[in-house]
Amino acid sequence: MGAGHSHGHASGRHRWRLAVAFGLVAVFFVVELVAGLLSGSLALLSDAGHMAADVVALGAALVATRVATRPDTTGRRTFGSYRAEVFASGLAVLLMLGVAAYVVVEAVGRWGSGVEPQTGAMVVVGGLGLVVNVAALVLLRGGARESLNVRGAYLEVVADTAGSVGVVLAGVLVAATGQPLWDTGVALAIGSFVAVRAVLLGRQVLAVLGQHAPEGVDPERVAADLEAVDGVLEVHDLHLWTLTSGMHVATAHLVTAEEEAVHPVLDRAGALLRERHGLAHATLQVEPRTHRTCAEIDW
């Protein structure tokens, strides 16, 4: 596949969603950070820290969608720059883990210190944060299933939404009981939730970078289906991977009888991969059984 091929890039189609969500989150991050510092609430500060990660992650996602659709002028990026969105998702994972670690360290240091946060600010700012996050979730939900990049941003905002709920809850509990430990406990819960979401997204990122078979595609089933194509005697060197969200790639060698016509075999095999397995871009090499071009390859 050359970089010049035209593809429907999943992240590019939802770039406007990322842009609007970025604007909402960036504005409210400043509000929450100032409120957290003035109120002394660790829950607010932890949520602001996570929102800061959102700002960076959403900004990186926006840059990645632009880079991914930029034409290659070097001639060396034969797959284009579509993987930029995967690296942006990896950055989001690192940021989420960093925020989670900060919250845990800060919570442990504050445990038993008796710092009393301003509960009114916690409830008001947490409530406003909940509204902003719900609006961002509605925007990003439409592209979260198609794009790993948008999914990373969506999961960040999901965690932020839970954080906003936690901040409001912490403010109510501290006001009702007079115990500031509720603020610290909720901050720890937010940090733990962020860490779990980061690990789940990180596994998806590593699967793409490790060139695993696309999720939901069984290589053994694909090989069996190809071997069942009329005219195909054997399938070998089958490779399946994801270039970026919505772009699954396949390569395979199809062994045929000497007298078999090449074009019908290619048409049938390509249609099968596209229609049954969602592999729209496949590079297939047809080999008569008396001509094994890859016999000497040892990997």
UniProtKB/TrEMBL annotation:
Localization (cell): Membrane
Keyword Ion transport among record annotations: yes
GO cellular component terms given for this protein: plasma membrane
Regions that span the bilayer: 20-42, 48-65, 86-105, 120-140, 152-175, 181-200
Similarity-based family: Belongs to the cation diffusion facilitator (CDF) transporter (TC 2.A.4) family. SLC30A subfamily.
Name by which UniProt lists this protein: Cation transporter
Membrane topology: Multi-pass membrane protein
Gene3D superfamilies referenced in this protein's UniProt entry, alphabetically: Cation efflux protein transmembrane domain
Domain Cation efflux protein cytoplasmic: 215-288
Domain Cation efflux protein transmembrane: 19-209
NCBIfam families named in the record: CDF
Molecular function terms, GO-annotated: zinc ion transmembrane transporter activity
Record key words, sorted: Ion transport, Membrane, Transmembrane, Transmembrane helix, Transport
Pfam families, A to Z: Cation_efflux, ZT_dimer
